[in-house]
Amino acid sequence: MRTVRLFVSGRVQGVGFRAFAQRQADRLGVDGWVRNLPDGRVEALAAGEDEAVAAFIEALRRGPAIARVSGVEVIEAPGEATVAGFRQRD
Question: Range of 47's domain?
Answer without folding.
Answer: 2-69
